[in-house]
Amino acid sequence: MSNIAVKYMGFDLSTPLILGSCGLSNKLDNLKLAEDNHFGAIVLKSIFEEEIHYQIHKAISESEDSAYGQYAQDYISHYREMESFEKYLNLIRQANESITIPVIASVNCFSSSGWMKYAKMIEQAGAKALEVNFFLLPTDFNKNADNYRKEYFKLLDELKKNISIPFALKTSSYFTDFANFMQQLSYSGPSALVLFNRFYAPDINIDKLEFKAARHLSDENELYNTLRWIGLLSGNLRCDIAATTGVHNGAGLIKLLLAGADVVQAASIFYKKGIPYAKEMMAELNSWMNKKEFKTINDFKGRLSYHNIDNPTIYFRTQFMKYMAGIE
Prior knowledge:
By secondary structure, the protein is α/β, with parallel strands linked by helices. The protein has one domain: TIM Barrel. The chain has 11 helices and 13 strands. The protein is globular and about 50 Å long.
């Protein structure tokens, strides 16, 4: 059997497959199941800053004490905030006592510095690392790209000052100067960049004339945008790269490793096929490596990145051309 161990964020992982942040990683039994089925690490379900703020405002508006002034509101706010967060900290503590693979906490925040106290508490609870899910949708007509970019650098600077565990930044490809921006972010202290996040998207019910949520699970066609950018960024960053979105089988994982990913995160496929499907993905990886006579992941990782192929312009091609697509 081939050696499929990898390094990521300073950790030695037994496999390159990570259970990405999702509802499945919010239960201790699932974390144990993931360890038993050949995951190298686990990213816990994100705790959402926006959701906690919503619960606080809801509690205040429903409380009879809200009429008694700011003191009562501050008490309710603090109580609900800590109540929500303590559940998350307990999951981290229980995971550390029950499993041996790295447990990476995850926060989804919309302010660049408001979560530093939570980051400290996560570290104190025993999380091995932190993944920060951060993206600012550029909807403000009075802000330009530089205004938004500063928030990302501010966040990374605050994390470096406040925690000592490794941290990763998970974000999207929706930036004008994406390659340059990711490179600059990699110089600013993260141990890894996680590419890419999947966002909530609105849909419209044309019968009821109302908005609804679009589908939330990925499909295999979403792999290709990730594949393009992993291949272009590989060898150009000063941190690790985790690839995610659209990974639904061992072949997808292999493709991203060939493009240059250090590890691969997946989640949607395990809703569809169950956490034990990871074992089949690792068997597919081992079988392919044996067939190609690769002994380790490093023997082929990045072999098809931008820097290592004869025709790197294929990564730049955006317009459909039949000779590129192989169809008439």
